[in-house]
Amino acid sequence: MMEINTRLKKLIASSGNPIHYQLYTDDGLVLLNDFIGKKLKIEFTGNIYCKSCGRPTKKSFSQGFCFPCFRDAPEAAPCIIRPELCRAHLGEGRNVDWEQQHHNQPHVVYFATSSAIKVGVTSIANIPTRWIDQGASSAVIFAKTPNRNLAGQIEVELKKYFTDKTHWQKMLRNDVMQIVNFNEAFDLVQTSVPDGLRKYLSLDSTIFNGHFPVLRYPEKISSFNPEKVSYIEGILTGIKAQYLMFDAEKVINIRKYEGYEVVIT
After folding, report:
1. Within this chain, do residues 151 and 235 fall inside the same structural domain, yes or no?
2. Which secondary structure element, helix H or strand E, spans residue 39, and what is its range?
3. Do 252 and 178 reside in the same domain of the chain?
4. Cα 126 to the chain's mean position, in Å?
5. Local structure of 157: helix, strand or coil
6. How many other CB atoms are there within 10 angstroms of residue 242's CB atom?
7. Same domain, 145 and 199
8. Is 58 within a domain?
9. Is residue 33 located within the same domain as residue 52?
10. What is the pLDDT of residues 76-129, one digit of tens each?
11. 175 and 223 part of one domain
12. What is the pTM of this model?
């Protein structure tokens, strides 16, 4: 029996058929695909550490921050959720050097599909990881901008017509769109985006297709909460987005519990 003591971090995902998922541990990376079909137990010790500063915290904010870092760290700034608020291109932000390195850089606006066509924004360096983390069945880039703010402006216009959220329960049940017409969606983009932003539009010819390592999708979903039960265990039946599926019904969002100390057997 193998036992791993670690603080949870976002799973490392890489393209493949199926997608490969690796788990951070104190002793290095572990390929989680190898454990699909086998019994796995994740037990929470009750200790929580901030993923930004590493300090112990009684409560986690916004997927892994202590309150001071949630309030002050650039990784938790409002423009992470609302890119149109980003001011990196103006030389401003919670941490100017961090903003220049991460947000005053080329970004893309994309369509990703699950149960519906979703519009989103991310750094061009974060493709295709962003799509994998969202559990996208397919995705395509339709705009490239020199900074995060401009990509956010395009997204704001398109949220009038497309969702910017992923319905996570449908995504985990694999209740996804079977027929997707990105060209039709892009036609709507071209007539909806203001003239000053249209120069950034161009539908990419390369379409991402997500092949996730799942033996069986759940019909019903029971989401794990360590505040109610200290552990989750069962047969690992699949991994999609940042979720582990157990016995095809119990699921845990690893990213939600970044910084939580666990023992995995």
Report:
1. no
2. strand 39-48
3. no
4. 10
5. helix
6. 22
7. yes
8. yes
9. yes
10. 999 999 999 999 999 999 999 999 999 999 999 999 999 999 999 999 999 999
11. no
12. 0.94
